[in-house]
Amino acid sequence: MPTPPDPVRRATAAEVARLAGVSPAVVSYVLNEGPRPVAPATAERVRDAVRQLDYRPNRAARALRVGSTGMVGLILPSVSNPFFAAFSEAFQAAAHQQGLAVIAASSDAVLAQEQELVESLPRHGIDGLVVATVMHLADSPALSDPGLPTVVVNAPFPVPGVHALGPDTRQGARLAVEHLLTVHGHRSVALVSGETAAERPTSRELGWSQAVSACNADTGPIVRVPFDRLGGLDAAQQLLALPERPTAVFATSDAQAFGLLHGLWSAGVRVPGDVAVVGFDGTDDGAYAVPPLTSARQPVAAMAAAALDALHLPPGSSHELFALDLVVRESCGCRPA
Fold it and tell me: Which keywords belong to this entry (predicted)?
């Protein structure tokens, strides 16, 4: 019986062929299910040899033959942000179901770095690219063409030349703020918004503003900080330094909300007794906040699956928005179920 090859190197198709008593071409026909038929008994001998030698086809070599590596790229703004961590998990799970591998990279929420990755990742032989963008509407025409199927996610606006999708952030923000105003009777809601270079208000800020107008409420203070926990902590300090402390706050990301909750707790402020808080993202981490965080929830699994499916669309432009629902917990003032 042939001795398996040295475990420090991969077995080859030729070794599989020798063990099975067939030609390398027959090995290829069995593994690729064609183009020529192979007798069932012969095919079984090949599969037995593959298992004995732990043979794994060289994807790069196969790509040269059939034009596909079975790998897709994923660019994320941050791997520490709980929403993008959840999106990454959902995307990789969807890719696995299709037999695809994922190469992920972080742009550190820097647009220039995102653009560099859009240009560099295709050199690693990926078949398609999904970009969780930090672009704003004014930036979208500047997206580099990576020369392969590309889908932009985290996009509440269309992106010229590519298929794009994202949460309906205006609808989600309005849903969260209206809950504070109508269900809990607050007369105003402070806004903790992300720092951006955009000249126009973000869609989350527009949703907050529309909710305030629709409920004839007073416009609350706005604090602009990074979309992370430290930003939320800074926001808590700024809000508590105001002459009149707000009774309710809407944070435009769960990460900000977590920092905000910690900052309020550190200052002895009770949530929701003194200040009610709602977030945006609806991550699972919110269930473990103190108190558990009420938040507008993005449909992560649906968006991840849609992004992967959009890679197979014909070249062109499209834009799809996904509605959010509200995960009601205790930080807003609702009692636990």
Answer: DNA-binding, Transcription, Transcription regulation
CB neighbour burial string for 258-268, b if at least 16 within 10 angstroms, e if fewer: bbbbbbbeeee
For the entire predicted model, the pTM comes to: 0.78
| Rounded (5°) CA angle 103-147-149 | 60
Q: What is the dihedral of CA 89, 93, 99, 104, to 10 degrees?
A: -10
The residues spanned by each domain of the chain are 13-57, 71-167+300-322, 169-298
Whole-angstrom Cα Rg for the chain: 26
> Does the structural domain 13-57 have CATH classification 1.10.260.40?
yes
Structure tokens at 154: 């985290």
pLDDT in tens, 247-256: 999 999 999 9
Our measurement of the distance from residue 150's CA atom to the centroid of its chain's CA atoms, rounded to an integer in Å, reads: 15
Positive or negative, the CA dihedral 229, 233, 236, 242 is negative
CA 158, 161, 165, 166 torsion-angle sign: negative
pLDDT tens digits, 199-222: 678 899 999 999 999 999 999 999
DSSP at 10: -
Q: For residue 95, give the nearest of 285, 312, 282 by alpha carbon.
A: 312
d(CA 52, CA 68): 27
* Measured distance between the N- and C-terminal CA atoms of the chain, rounded to whole angstroms: 65
Q: 169-298 — its CATH code? A: 3.40.50.2300
Cα gap 221→283, rounded to integer Å: 25
* 71-167+300-322 homologous superfamily: Response regulator (3.40.50.2300)
Task: Give backbone dihedrals phi and psi of 125, rounded to 5 degrees, phi first.
Answer: 80, 20
- The torsion of the CA quartet 117, 139, 321, 195, rounded to 10 degrees, works out to 90
φ, ψ at 48 (rounded to 5°): -60, -45
